[in-house]
Amino acid sequence: MKRFALDIATRQFQKHGEDIAGDAFRVAQTPDSTIISVSDGLGSGVKANVLATLTVEVACGLSQGDLSLEDIVETLIATLPVCKWRSIAYSTFSVVRIYDTGRVTLAEYDCPPTLKLAGGIRPEFVETFERTVRDRNIRVAYFRMQPGDVLVQYTDGIVWAGVGQKLPMGWQEDGIFQFLSATAPALRGDCAAQANRLAEQALEYWEGAPGDDGTVVCARYRKARHAVLLTGPPSSPDRLPAMLQDFLGREGTRLVCGGTTAHLLARHLDVPLEVDDRFLDSDLPPGGKIRGMDLVTEGILTLTRAAEYLRRGIPPGRSDAATCLLDHLMDADGITFLVGTARNPAHQNTGLPESIFLRRVVAEELAAQLRERGKEVDLVFY
Length: 382
Description:
This protein is an alpha+beta fold. It has 2 domains: 4-223, PPM-type phosphatase domain (Phosphatase 2c, domain 1); 226-381, no CATH class. Helices cover 32% and strands 29% of the residues. The protein is built from 10 helices and 18 strands. It has helices at 45-63, 69-79, 156-159, 172-187, 191-205, 240-248, 259-269, 300-312, 321-331, 359-372; strands spanning 4-13, 23-30, 33-41, 91-99, 103-109, 115-118, 122-125, 129-133, 136-144, 150-154, 214-223, 226-231, 253-257, 274-276, 287-289, 295-297, 334-339, 376-381. The strands form 4 sheets. Strands 2-3-4-5-9-8 form a 6-stranded antiparallel sheet. It has a 5-stranded antiparallel sheet with strand order 1-11-10-6-7. Helix 4 (172-187) packs across helix 5. The longest helix is centred in the N-terminal third of the chain and has 19 residues, at 45-63.
């Protein structure tokens, strides 16, 4: 399991009178890193959006290969069209690659400088050096992020907010720096709040009628959150001690799914198993409470319902053991399923479909749904 993870939040607005923003951003994942690409297309509207989208797609695609940062930048410069009248690129870009170790590579072309919020609260401009690639000046940086640090990328619509209106020369980088100095300490690294505050302030300076497209992307580097889910007794009673020790020896949120499983764990811990009365009025069997566990639910039916909610969506206003389980799972970056493969005698002659009792099948389906949502999931069978 990865030890560190990223929270990424974005906020974007389009130029007044346009139906689509001329900026674009993309996030791509590799086994050991995350790539965030932001581009500002020349002008506004559909044409600018197409050019910006092309830029971020190419940047993220190239970044997922074995190319170096220099190779990626050179390919981008060679690919991007140039206005023959003004000799400027039809789109600018900022490409940052954040490795799971905290190592960062950054390349910027004709775009505003990236800011880092040290500890999520103290802004500083990322120190770059210039490189010439195909007669173009590129700003490059190599540095390391610490847990809690936030990177802030933004486009010209933020920098020039209010130009000719509330601010004769626009907001400018120094104004953005001062704004972050004042607001970041209270937000404590909340990426979504920070992106929204920055964009909302820009819109206020534009007096609600932006003269340019604006995009803000915030990425917070933090320790990964893990969860471990125990469900079902092992195929052989001899394997029970190892399974329980594996469960109790892992760090993170501890989830128990299954009545028999809960009884076995409570007996092993020599603590009482109590009834959880929060969801007694739902159509799922009631859960329980075990000291030291974050959630204890019934097994197969709850897991099956959770997978169904991921597949079809949670009905409005629905609250039950499965939604509570999903809250814990979706909050985690890495999830380990410890799945017992013993057949439960209580499932004989119930009249329900045979497939619902295959705990392994249900766990694998739930794991697949979580992986599609970017979670790192391990399945261990006992």
